[in-house]
Amino acid sequence: MSRALRQARTALAGSPSAVAEARTLVAYALGTEPGQLPLADPLDQAAQQRLQQALARRVAGEPVQHITGIAYFRHTELRVGPGVFVPRPETEALTGWCLERLAGRDSARVVDLCAGSGAISKAIAQEHPGLDQIAVEISAEAVDYLIANLADTEVEVVAADMATALGHLDGTVDLVVCNPPYVPLTAWESVAADVRDHDPQQAVFSGPDGLDAMRVLADAAARLLRPGGLLGAEHAEAQHEAVVELFCRRGDYCAVRDHRDLTDRWRYLTCVRR
Asked: Which residues, other chains included, contact 125 with Cβ-Cβ below 8 Å and sequence gap of 6+?
């Protein structure tokens, strides 16, 4: 086993996450989970062949999650692949904020806009079951993953544009959460290749300043939220001031705050519907 891990780490030496990726791909080749590697048998010929193929795909730039078909988020496992945005660890901070605000509540209506793979919705459903949850996603390809990932929950999936979705619920929602696309089109060349070339562009890029979707979100959330309802939205660190200004200058939100993630980077905004 140690030999296979060394082999994988060597092949992935150019990646900043070589150690973690090596463990994930060796586990994938063996058909087990990374945490079970100390108990796993040595790789047989078939497993060795799967590992070599997986390493070749990763070296070529394919995301590890597309190779394995799995992404881990908080305490849950998600199916991912071409056509859906791979959830990132930094989004766990926004999800944690949602769960903190929902703590102790027996009922609440929660809407996840730009739901993608369903990472936020599934985490909330697993860690705080019994809520009225709705996940909204516009991409038909992503909706297929969303339905699959939320199949073991009671979250309702709605295929729609967040700009017009759920009109029948206007003014009744307790919490809106969203991880919208927010990379500026002008930053295309600076985006990591595995994101730029493999995540759906609709889920990554959002106009010249990266805030086109955020502006739509501001309108949609104002429409959906009840007075006193909460909004949480992820953004890029460089957008800290622009996002705060966007929501502060509107008349329909108060208590606008920006929050840092575990790496001390500005990561998500929260506010309250007036």
From this structure: 131, 133, 150, 153, 154, 155
- The two tokens of residue 149 are 């990932």
Integer Cα distance of 29 and 46 in angstroms: 8
What is the pLDDT confidence band of residue 1, given thresholds at 50, 70 and 90? Answer: low
Report how far residue 131's alpha carbon sits from residue 125's, in angstroms, rounded to the nearest whole number: 7
Q: Where are the domains of the chain?
A: 2-60, 83-273
Is residue 157 exposed (0-12), middle (13-18) or buried (19+ Cβ within 10 Å)?
A: buried
pLDDT in tens, 64-87: 999 999 999 999 999 999 999 999
Task: Return the CATH number of the domain spanning residue range 2-60.
Answer: 1.10.8
The band of 211, judged by pLDDT with boundaries at 50, 70 and 90, is very high
Instruction: Tell me what the pLDDT averaged over the chain comes to.
Output: 95
> Number of C-alpha atoms within 13 angstroms, CB side, residue 82?
3
Specify the CATH architecture of the domain 83-273: 3-Layer(aba) Sandwich (3.40)
| CATH topology identical between 2-60 and 83-273 | no
